[in-house]
Amino acid sequence: MSKTLAVCVVAAACVWADDISGSNAGKLAFLIPGLYGPAGLTLPNQEHVAHFDSAFRASFGPFNAAIASQLTSLPIPSPASGFVYSFDKTLGVATRSAQSFGPILAERAETIGKEKFYFGVAYQSFRFKSMDGIPLRRMPAVFEHGVAANPEFQKDIITTDNFLDISIGQVTSYFTYGLADRLDVSVAVPVISAALTAVSSAKIQRIGTKDDTSIHFFPTTVGDRSQQQFSGQGSAAGLGDVVVRLKGTLVRRSSSGFALGLDVRAPTGDEYDFLGTGAAGVKPFVALSFRAGKVSPHLNAGYQWNGKSVLAGNVVSGDKAKLPNEFSYAAGADIGVGKRFTVAGDLLGLARPGAERLGAAQYRAANNLLYPNIAFARKTLSQHNAALGFKINGAGNFLVAFNLLFKLNDDGLRGRVTPLIGVSYTF
Prior knowledge:
Helix content: under 10%
Number of helices: 3
CATH topology: Porin
CATH superfamily: monomeric porin ompg
Radius of gyration: 26 Å
Strand content: over 45%
Distance between the termini: 75 Å
Shape: elongated
Structural class: mainly beta
CATH architecture: Beta Barrel
Largest sheet: 12 strands, antiparallel, barrel
CATH class: Mainly Beta
């Protein structure tokens, strides 16, 4: 029995190694599934192949899928120009018509103006601390023993305390051109830097083998060899997923406007290194804005369809699965404080039906003791954030923007505060 199992384990290791031996070897998406080696958590007893597994390793996909889904909704600075122009028939020239410099992460209904060009660049730093309210730096998981000839051996488990550190930096260059007086085209080009560290402290709980340390042990020389730490880390940088936006103002009055827009996301980022989602996306949206003196409220709503990605499927086998679609909204206002300063605030959120959600659980061992564990379930994810920032007009058509994004709930992969700093210029 043990020899047969040993052959299976070696074969599985060879298949796994062959799957990642090509251009994807060493990619960040393989760090968690490969943390314990190509055959999973397998102990080295020559006489008894002690192969442990758990939902943590078998369902590592939800962690990769959570990162991919987060990449579909990383806030991109609004490509709407801080300066809006309209053609004055009396003067025969384009004149500025906005009383404030507009929102930072949301969209307003006004377009930039015919043949006007807008360029900006912004940096955001995302440091994820939790997933669905469970701290990434202290995440428990239980590994069960595989089928063994001696049923007492199967009672032993391995408990692990896991540390995950996930961070993403995003530098976005964005361009907007006025195709017509009421029609804009924009391009957002993100450059992503991603880093992942995983550390797992494992301990053998000898429930079936009791005091016999010769059956299950780690290849260490410390004490009874019941504990070992596994770790891995990596980083990557490169082009993210490029987004092209088309926005047209359907209704434009002196104090209000209504626009329709369409975002198309191209899977240009390397999904195996968490630089992109690996899936195309299409997002139609509406933008409604008003103006009351120097106060300009706005409301956005959109629905994003996502394609299939290997991050939502199985990175080892290469099988793809569909990333969840999502509904998103933004509601807020920007206020012109003097001629050169605008304050902007927003409530932003999304709903993602059918997302993989992480939850706390308990594992009941053969001795009826309970050990902390985790479990995944498919259900709707809802994220809500608040944003507060400002824009400063230093000189001419040059703007500097600063913003802080605060989480309002724990759903999904979350960081507490996300800063943004950017500069832009309108030609």
